[in-house]
Amino acid sequence: MKVRTIRSLAKVLLVGGLACVIGATMSVAGVSIPAFALSTYSVGDPTASATTVSWTDQHHAATDTSDPNYESFRHLSFSVNQTANLSHQGITIRWSGGVPTSAVQYAQNFMQVMQCWEDTPEQCQFGQPSQSMVDKSGFQVQSRNIEPGLDPAQANDLSPERILAENPDGTTTYAFPFLSVDGNSTFETGDLFSSATSNEVSAAPTASDGTGMLNFEVQTSLEAPHLGCGSDDGSGTPQPCYLIIVPRGSLDLNGQTPSESSGRINGSPLSLSAWKNRVVIPLNFAPVSQSCPIGQSEVRVVGSELAAKAVTSWQPILCNTGATYGYSRIGDDEARTQISGSDIGASRMALVSGPLDSSSPYAKMFDYAPVAQSAIVIAYNIDYSLYSSSSIFAQKNGTKVHDLKLNQRLVAKLLTQSYRDDAPGAGYGNPTVQANPRSLTVDPEFLSLNPEFQDFTRVAPQGLMVSFGNADTNKHVWQWIRANSQATAFLRGTPDSWGMKINPAYKDLGLADGEASVSFPKADLHTYSASSSVPGYGTLDMRPYFNSLDETATRALRADGNVKTAWDPFKLPAPGAYGAIAPQPVGQRFMLALTDLSSAYRYGLDVASLQGSAAGDFVEPTAQTISTAIENQVATDTNGVRQTNWTKAVTGAYPLAEVTYAAVNVCLSTATERTAYENFINYATTTGQTLGDDLGNLPYGYVPLSDSQRGVAQKALADIHTPANKAERCVMPVEPVTEVQQPFESIDISTGGTGHKKMFLRKPTYGEGATSDVIPVLPKILSAGGYILGIPMLLTGWLLLRRHRNQPGKK
Fold first, then answer.
1. This prediction's pTM
2. What does the angle CA 640 – CA 645 – CA 651 come to, to the nearest 5 degrees?
3. 414-439 burial by CB neighbour count: b if 16+ within 10 A, else e?
4. What is the DSSP letter of 756?
5. Are 344 and 739 in contact (CB under 8 A)?
6. CA–CA distance from 616 to each of 129, 407, 410, 442, 480 (Å)?
7. Residue 222 contacts residue 204 (beta carbons within 8 Å)
8. Per-residue pLDDT tens for 746-759?
């Protein structure tokens, strides 16, 4: 054999052996290297489970041509962007081929949409509309009641089970009772769902071109137990449900032209003549509850809500590492403090948006690995509510707005209650606020950026909804605002170009100077009452805080700002109390929410283009603009952590792009804990970066990490595994981590970003000597095989090269 051939064989053995060994090592570490593509996903885009159904798919011409509304419905086609792996979220419904909704809303030609646990009227969540919607539609159009004279077909199907009441005049009132998934039937549907909690859409308009769009709130058994969607049906499969769309035309249920002068059609969509024209789309859900096997060790992780949806997706898959990762959402400062302290049982890893201050004696104890990137956004749910004289009235009235621009000063005005509608009593007793514009929609500065709002009616946002608490992301919002000189001047008291001034209650808070605030103060302490006989309401009644970024997004979708300004003299405790007003009706919604991009995606909300920092351009949060912003972040004093410099001019960079870091205290954590943190970070930065709506994926609204970020994470992992200069870094006295052993404990686990639930898990054993099986079986097999094959190959290749290195050309 030629030496050249032997050398070639030796090289092949060396390369193959090296590959096996590296693969084995990476298998032990849990590392995979998927290919990452820059996301181009937009809110409402089709997912893998998107579906399109035409009306004629479910209604055959041979049997339905006799329907009086056949010509109005036969061209209808409905698309739904997601029908599987559903949770509590928004889905986008689009339709085409319809007849434009009448100018008198909602007289004729509109869609009625509801969620049902089976395909019968009794099993549908419908019949609790707001009074404002009732006032806009015909008799019983938004009701479960049956009027025998309205629908001849239904008159033949009035069973005793549908008798609501026998009236004193000898007549009978009929209605469709609601049958819950547990088998209970009731006419008192208000005990189960109300206008504030039901996801029914009483009327959705069709535009002049025959198209329409609706963001529909999908509810699970957690939000609507009576529907049971997503709960275990006994077979281990999540309970499916149905999306039902009932198109309404221009004729009454008897096939005749409406007799009302307004032209409004009459009758419930549940009545037979309307119900038979429904379109039914199955909805499949992700399991409502996911839990790790009882008995696994628990790994506590704390941190920012910004990472909550990603962690919730990763948690069930991470169960396979042999540990249960419980995530508790707390503020960034609180999280950094917790992992720095010596409290027994405290987490030693936190997910945060920024590092511990470099001057802290604990700062050197931490390693930082980027695990997720997303953005803080201003999401909105706005309908065109136009004066009839508007040039775009026929084309757009009642349809959704998809373009909104906001600059720093406008956001500052919203956050400081400087519009009259955002202060109690429209600024009563506050001459500065009383001289300001009524709302954002009539602010000349806003209209100069958004000219289509010139013809809007008196609809107005219920403020800018924000969450309660301290967070790095809140500070970043203020830093972005303060990077604009006009916004900073406004916060200090300088009027804008049209004479609008800051609400004096905020002028002396120093929002423009010093350390940026980590919260959004509600400083106007005025109260207002329209009558001396009732107490006044204040800021927190009309512009309350919300529990989370997820809730602000949910409220925007529902068009419900929890505005409690309606006095109810019968509300307990006596002599009464303020109650919440009804949600804004479809066609007149104007909701703004400060939230994260993942929540905006989840609930199908549009997001505003924000004015960039020094560059001054208006930028929408996309994968490209978020990546551009993060690529241009500047290094901090903390190794591996970068932050936005809002004074740096970068065109096409979304200003509120955010990176979430896993901060690990390598000094106070045990070897067992560090191994668990390594497994978490490994998964989060590799397989967990695949975008998708399956469990284990990176939810839409996040942007996959770049190669350089994953490189930073791998360096951090190496140090977490074997901390460098540990004696020098761990300068603070560290007591041994011990814990009194008890069989079980109650812990908090994430429930999809909307809250926490209690779960009983066996307590872990801590300490350097503790052992746990944290490497799954398959990686063990792969790693063993890699070493068994790789090491002999390396040795054989090395020996062949050594033996023949001085024999060039020998046979």
1. 0.83
2. 115
3. bbbbbbbbbbbbbbbebebbeebbeb
4. E
5. yes
6. 43, 9, 14, 23, 12
7. no
8. 333 333 333 333 33
